[in-house]
Automatic annotation (TrEMBL), chain A:
It comes from the Bacteria. Its main location: membrane. Signal peptide: none annotated. The chain crosses the membrane at residues 7-26, 32-50, 57-75, 95-113, 125-144, 225-246, 258-280. It is found in: Membrane. InterPro entries: ABC/ECF_trnsptr_transmembrane. The keyword Transmembrane applies. One of its GO terms (cellular component) is plasma membrane. It is a multi-pass membrane protein. Keywords: Membrane, Transmembrane, Transmembrane helix. This is Energy-coupling factor transporter transmembrane protein EcfT. The keyword DNA damage does not apply.
TrEMBL record, chain B:
One of its GO terms (cellular component) is membrane. Gene3D superfamilies: 1.10.1760.20. This is ECF transporter S component. The chain crosses the membrane at residues 7-30, 36-52, 64-84, 126-144, 156-177, 189-215. InterPro entries: ECF_substrate-spec-like. Keywords: Membrane, Transmembrane, Transmembrane helix.
Amino acid sequence: MKNIFSIYHPLVIFTYIVSALAFAMLTFNPVYVILSFYIGSLYSIYLLGIKKYISTLKFGVVLFIVVAIANPMFNHQGLTVLFYNPWDNPITLEAFAYGLSSGGMLVSIFIWFNCYNGLINNDKFMYLFGRILPTIALMLSMIMKWVPVTKNRISIINNSQKSLGLGVNMGTKKQKINRCIRVTSILMSWSLEDSIETADSMKARGYGCTKRTSYSVYKWGTHDIISMFIISLLVIVNGVLILGGYSTYEYYPTFSGNLFGVANLFAYGLYIILLAYPLLLEGKEEIVWKLLKYRT
Amino acid sequence: MSVKSRRLLIIAEPVVMLLTPILLVFTTIYDIEQTALLSSLIIIFAMVPFFARFELSKPKPRDIVPLVVLSVIAALGRVAFAPIPHFKPVSAIVIVSGLSFGPQAGFMTGALSALASNMFFGQGPWTPWQMFTWGLVGYLAGLLKKTFLFKKPIFIYIYGFLSGFMFGWIMNIWYIIGFIKPITSTTVVGAYIASFYFDVTHAVATVVFLIPILIPWQKKLNRIKLKFGLME
């Protein structure tokens, strides 16, 4: 499915998703955690479909339960004692709430990484880091190219070994292991010699003589500039609000901090706008489209 | 690149390696709320001197391709053994790379294997940690090669076994300092006990892969190095 962010410049997308991830790790305030979780879930479902989301969530829920139970089991701080465990250690409401909140944070980080994987494909990643780290980016793209090539080579080696009567699936266990080692060692020699040839060819074509240029399809447009501006502004404002301590919520020794003051609600509103920014853009497109259709 | 700045970067590597755990401890002592984010940033910045030195040394194509081949095999091996959790050949291959091509190459192989294999599995909060840790496994292997201990393969196997634990223990840090509060000895020990089974699996896997590949692969890599005059 095509999402609106796919026509945006990778830097805009990267800024958005990295800030969403950073903010997800930034505060244990339960409202922020819940907002991050729900908006991340919505966007993940929108980007990658419900199936992928559920498989991430399954993994996330297991972690969530482990964290939520482990924290009150091992942490005995907090004033509100719920009950005593068999070892006479108090199980406190505060430790339990902290466990829920940090478990929720963990799950939402996984969900946001889901969105990251949906938004930043390998092409965009290479584009973003190719300028700063040209050699590393080149090596990465060589790896991406050689993985299927190497896979193919393994099957070629396997087939030829099989036809010699030395297939890895035949013979005793010891023979099998020896044959596997043989295959990897053939693969190593072949790949290494071949890679040197590639290197020589690169050198012959003038690799390293001047700065590397790269083909890219990405251009800055007006919509990129506007979105970049809005996202940066939201990141700064939200960052100030969160790091400035307006959202600090303490669990120990007992719950303290204001969750639903006027200033808090305002901050949550700004946070929602930041996280839901691509979804809002998507909605805007939908409305414009409907209007245009209505007019004609 | 001038000799002076190169020398500076060579010094920067071990300094960063020592500074990273100290900084991580500081973030926990000072009880900063944002430790999950901060610790990830520290790990990312810890890799900067390694990448910077590699980039600035302007490596020749012949010097980078063997590392690419090793990273490809490591990434493929990780994908092939994905059904068995934590049983992966990456550490073993990274160690061989560090032994044959030196600490810097070992670091690059480890970091790139982690990044590239995650391009198949999907990136996650673990990516920078895996990059750093596998890089460290390769870097230390390259450094220890010069000591008398690594003359005997048995010590390399022992190092491989320990590296499995090192990997798991460093990976635990993100979780412990980011998500446990307050950090007490019980909670830390609890987290390490919880990961013990996986760490043992990883350690055993590393040795299992290291035993058959160590000597033949090193021979092959040394032959290639000699034949084509690499990394001199």
